[in-house]
Design brief:
With about 400 residues, the chain is an alpha/beta fold. The protein folds into 2 domains: about 10-50 and about 295-400, Aspartate Aminotransferase, domain 1 (Alpha-Beta Complex); about 50-290, Aspartate Aminotransferase, domain 2 (3-Layer(aba) Sandwich), CATH 3.40.640.10. The protein contains 12 helices and 15 strands. The chain has helices at about 15-30, 50-65, 75-90, 100-115, 130-135, 155-165, 185-200, 255-275, 285-290, 295-315, 340-350, 380-400; strands spanning about 35, 95-100, 120-125, 145-150, 155, 170-175, 200-205, 230-235, 250-255, 320, 330, 335, 355, 355-360, 370-375. The strands form 3 sheets. An 8-stranded mixed beta sheet has the order 2-9-8-7-6-3-4-5, sandwiched between helices. Strands 10, 11, 12, 14 and 15 form a 5-stranded antiparallel beta sheet that branches. Helix 5 links the parallel strand 3 (about 120-125) and strand 4 (about 145-150). Helix 4 (about 100-115) crosses helix 8, helix 10 runs parallel beside helix 12 and helix 11 (about 340-350) crosses helix 12 (about 380-400). The longest helix has 22 residues, at about 295-315. It is globular. The N and C termini lie far apart (about 65 Å).
């Protein structure tokens, strides 16, 4: 009998709640129950499409046989377009730009090049589970900081201050935030810059949703507020341009060159070792950034209606409260009860077929329970799903009696 293969211990704590919940959903779907999926942030499975000039540019590149390896940092045409985009965002003092297999690869490369085992980075909580997965893989020490639900899910500056130690190398921001949909204020960002400069921290600015904004809000890129702070701004085509399957993202390194030079070379060592990002898709970057943005107008109109329905219907459920998102396409409603959100979500899926993601998969203040919804589906699907959640909530409390908290006004 052969000996069992033991996986590396670095994989033990890797979870990805957004996809992990699908395992249960697939089992429920086998029973024939109608499923309402509010768990995956993929615009293309709903009524959103990329701009035609993006698709046409990529197709043209394929026909012209741009199907081999690209330069490790990406094609020059695309990098130049990203640099011009950085300028429009107000980011100056740029020293490097690189194109990657989605923003996810850029983030992982930059963390790998910066942080040693036993060191830490400040991670937003709640935040995107990619970061905790990378943290586990790199065997870093967890160091979460909290977003303040009572203050529109803005980063808690006092909490950040209290978490910085001599092993802290960076602070990560997701703005607009996934899973809460919050948009950070300039004042809040300037306070974070001050902490970064005082403690020689690199700011990782995940701005993948920076064009999906509501109510006339404007996005402020943290890299634009100070030319000296060491900052990597992450972006990509996935969300703003509705092509998550293209896996095209990038990083923009800005700040003082003398402080960043060795780090930039470390990043490029990894970029060269992994060869290149997808080649033909890179030809879609320039037209995406520089031609008409009409698709964003159409998408935003849809999302505002669906956001408003989400907030209204969820806040109407006794025992649930929801902060109004200002960007992206997520909401992170709170369950005012003592039972675990993971248990609630599992029972919700089995009883109603509504698939959401438990808040514990994104991190949350201890003692609180949440779930994440994606409001990309059309209004008919959302209405059916939210009615089902409302009907289920009271049944759940009756079946699993706990003392629910008073609803926050």
């Amino acid at each position: 009998m052969s000996k069992k293969i033991i996986p590396a211990h670095r994989t033990a704590n890797i979870t990805y709640a957004v996809r992990d919940i699908v395992v249960l959903a697939n089992e429920v779907a086998k029973s024939g129950k109608e499923m309402l999926y509010l768990n995956i942030g993929d615009p293309n499975i709903y009524d959103f499409e990329p701009p035609k000039h993006l698709v046409e540019a990529t197709y043209k590149a394929m026909l012209e046989n741009k199907n081999g390896y690209a330069p490790s940092s990406g094609i020059q045409e695309a990098r130049d377009a990203i640099e011009r985009e950085a300028g429009r965002k107000g980011i100056t003092n740029v020293h490097d730009i690189f194109i990657t297999t989605g923003a996810s690869e850029a983030i992982e490369i930059c963390l790998t090049a910066l942080v040693n085992e036993s060191e830490n980075v400040l991670l937003p909580t709640p935040g995107y589970p990619l970061y905790t997965a990378i943290e586990s893989k790199l065997e870093l020490i967890g160091n979460p900081y909290f977003l303040n639900e009572d203050n529109g899910w803005l980063p808690d500056i006092d909490d950040i201050k209290s978490k910085i130690n001599d092993k802290t190398k960076a602070i990560i921001l997701i703005n607009p935030n996934n899973p809460t949909g919050s948009l950070y204020t300039e004042e809040n960002l300037r306070q974070i810059i001050e902490l970064a400069l005082e403690n020689d921290l690199v700011i990782f600015a995940d701005e993948i949703y920076d064009k999906l904004l509501f109510d006339g809000k404007k996005h402020v890129s943290i890299g634009s507020l100070n030319k000296d702070v060491s900052c990597i701004t992450f972006g990509g085509l996935s969300k703003n341009y509705m092509v998550p399957g293209f896996r095209i993202g990038w990083g923009i390194v800005s700040g003082r060159k003398e402080a960043l030079s060795d780090y930039i070379e470390a990043i490029n060592k990894i970029l060269r070792a992994r060869l290149s990002a997808n080649h033909p898709e890179q030809f879609g970057i320039k037209p995406s950034l520089e031609e008409t943005q009409e698709h964003l107008v159409i998408a935003t109109e849809k999302l505002i209606k669906r956001r408003d329905m989400t907030v209204e219907m969820l806040n109407a459920i006794d025992g649930i409260s929801c902060v109004k998102p200002e960007g992206a396409f997520y909401a992170f409603p709170r369950l005012h009860m003592q039972q675990s959100d993971a248990h609630f979500v599992a029972e919700l899926i089995k009883e109603t077929g509504v698939v959401v993601v438990p808040g514990s998969g994104f991190g949350q203040v201890p003692g609180t329970q949440h779930f994440r919804v994606v409001f990309l589906p059309n209004e008919q699907i959302l209405e059916k799903a939210y009615k089902a959640i409302g009907d289920f909530y009271q049944k759940y409390l009756d079946k699993y009696p706990v003392k629910a908290e008073a609803k926050i006004q």
